Amino acid sequence: MAAKKTAKKPTGNAPSEGEAAAKPVAKKAAKKAVTKKTAPTAAKKAAKKIPAKPSLDAIARAAYLNYRRRVEQGLPGDSHGDWLEAEKQSTEE
To answer: In principle, which of 18, 19, 24, 63 could form an S-S bond with 86, CB 3.0–4.6 Å?
Structure first.
């Protein structure tokens, strides 16, 4: 069973009625604003974790550049390795 909330009885230095009524409303509004800012939804958290996937055209272009660099430098390799390296480079960015 929930405990009853008791209101504090005014003392000799109590604020006027207008000030006393405004404080609880302001506290509730401030509390709502804080919880909305600090508690992102699950969808926002998931969106931050998943990076954007590069297009196949971008990967193909990067693989071609890897191929050209490899051939110019006389390094061994194949097109599959160039493609994998291009995918790795595009996901790191």
So the answer is: 63
Q: If you write DSSP's letter for every residue of 10-54 in order, what string do you get? A: P-TTPPPHHHHHHHHHHHHHHHHHHHHHH---HHHHHHHHSPPPP
Q: At what angle do helices 56-73 and 79-92 cross, to 10 degrees?
A: 120
pTM above 0.70, yes or no: no
Digit-coded pLDDT (tens) for 3-62: 666 666 656 555 555 555 556 666 666 666 555 555 556 666 655 666 678 899 999 999
Q: Which residues contact 20 (CB under 8 A, 6 or more apart)?
A: 14
